[in-house]
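Lab notebook, bench 4. The sequencing result for the construct came back, and we need a structural model before the next group meeting so we can plan mutations. Quick request posted to the team channel:

Model the 3D structure of this chain.
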Amino acid sequence: MENTKKRIGIIGAGPAGLTAAYLLRKKGWDVVVCEADPEYVGGISRTVHYKGYSFDIGGHRFFSKSKEVEELWSELLPNDMLERPRLSRIYYNGKYFSYPLKAFDALSKLGVVQSVLCVLSYLKARVIPVRDPKNFEDWTSNQFGKRLFNIFFRTYTEKVWGMSCRDISADWAAQRIKGLSLGRAIVNSFKPQKRTSDGPVIKTLIDSFRYPRKGPGMLWDECAKRVRDMDGHILMGQTVVGLNHKGDGKWEIVHRDKDGHEMLQVVDEVISSAPLRELAMSLTPPVSEWARGAALNLKYRDFITVVLIMKDQGQFDDNWIYIHDPKVKVGRIQNFKSWSPEMVPDPEMSCYGLEYFCFEGDGLWNARDEDLIQMAKAEFMQIGLAKKDKFVDACVVRQPKAYPVYDDAYAQNVEALRRDLKNKFPTLHMIGRNGMHKYNNQDHAMMTAMLCVENIVAGRELYDLWQVNEDAIYHEAGHAGVEKALSSGLRAVPIRRRTA
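Done. Here's the predicted structure in token form:
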């Protein structure tokens, strides 16, 4: 028997929220989306515009093992996806190293003595590894040896997270760099990884990717347009401040605009891509005390991009460079022209994004834009990428809650909160990066939305959304593994129910 179509409230117009809205409207369901940003959709995958220049919040490569995700990208932008070469390097001790690490490149630039010590350190890790590594340091040291970990992983990782590598869960390392090791790097030096149909390629090793010609926001702008064209509602500049579950089973979404005016949406079910901590605090009736405590213990890392516009001096062709130099605060530098030439309106100019990781409310976050710009210019020159007289313009973009933190207790906190929410609110669905407190990519966020829609339309839980991302191969493989991934069943795991 077909389920009656309901009104669905969606919190957040990022990749997860907009994917859900688009697919539900295609099926004829009524949707209303509340987005806190007054101007941009796309969340952290938006493209910001400044005086004709366009830039990402972090840079987003488009590749996925999911055939459904790839097809949706193509459906939304059939003629606007570029195939871009991937080039990234590590800056350390005044030198540039290929990334992903190429063994001979790295060892030759480190020098004979350091190289020998690195190889011996790696061999020791292979013979006497840390058993059942729990933190990032131990997991990565097992793969590369302690010495290479200290050179190529410690500084950058601690810049990103603002904490010791021993306090970061091994889950993050396993998710982001699984399959890589010094041994694998040596093999890859002889046999470069290419996109083929023979099997999955590790995400970090892909050598090209798709990219919208005007940035990822181009895709999400188009998705939002199509939702509106189908009479879906996307309310911009509306921050959700309350989520009330009523006695009749319906939900009241209370949202507030920049002037403090509150409005109400009554819906049958809610899909949330809002940060899990804030979601838990907004609910009526409230979550249990132990779930509330778990929510309050969830942490987030925030993010500042200082954009520098200057005459093109051909400084570098990389899409981005990781900065492992502890003498500067910048963690990564994006070259937006290398993502797509159309991001920069004047071919004589270049546009760079210097990324700084921080906590909302700390000294860096609260610094004046003028001070951040001066620091970024100084560090750009200190690294040797520019001369002072070449800067033309600059701006600053702050991104709160860019990364859910994987500390040593995050998994237990998420699980405690997830169980409480599922038991109390079966018509509340969490999707996406912050909605599930999972450091995933936009294709994974989209897949959680796709499966969530299938559950809602079916009127029962066909798929456990929390199983998306459980398989590390799904996380790490790139475009080349699409067909094999599908034939291998690397999707969310359907729930198996016992029959009476």
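The radius of gyration is 23 Å.
Will bring this to the meeting.
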